[in-house]
Each structure stands twice: as C-alpha cells, then as structure tokens.
C-alpha cells in the first residue's frame, strides 16, 4: 500500500486466481477486505484498515495478469486555518511571539 499524489493505492499479487475468485468488500466503513474463494486452493481473506483521508465511496479495482490494484482517491481536505500570531508584551515591548 502506498500514496500517490491524489490517491492511496493497494497492490496485491493474486497469481493463480482469476477475477471471479477474488472479491473486494468492506467489513465496516474503514476496513477493506480482500476475499479469495477457490475450489482448487481453498479460501482466505486479508483485512486492511484504511485511513480517514481516503474516499472509500470512489474505490476503483483492476485485476490484470494476477495483480489486483485498488485505488482510493484522497478526500478533499479543507486546509487548516492558520492560527493568528500570539501577541506578547515583554518588558514594555509589544511584538509578535513567533516573528
């Protein structure tokens, strides 16, 4: 799992499985599950906790040549408000604390 400029990407090698055997689902709002069910190899599941900063409603999956790629865009985060400077009076002087 890694960050790109606009999204979080999860790559998972699924060699030997086809796209009908691999399912991506949510256990709850922030836990992504990759479920594999195969008659030849049995079944298994991997859960991944997702950060709050991704938009899980716009998740995209690709399955190509045994590689599963899940892409989740970053949420449009509002920039944090800049704190106003703290004005301090020291020994009769008036100025900005952080200047």
TrEMBL record:
Superkingdom of source: Eukaryota
Record-linked InterPro entries: A-crystallin/Hsp20_dom (IPR002068), HSP20-like_chaperone (IPR008978), Small_HSP (IPR031107)
Domain SHSP residues, every copy: 1-89
Pfam families linked: HSP20 (PF00011)
Keywords: Stress response
Similarity-based family: Belongs to the small heat shock protein (HSP20) family.
Protein name: SHSP domain-containing protein
Native organism: Carpinus fangiana
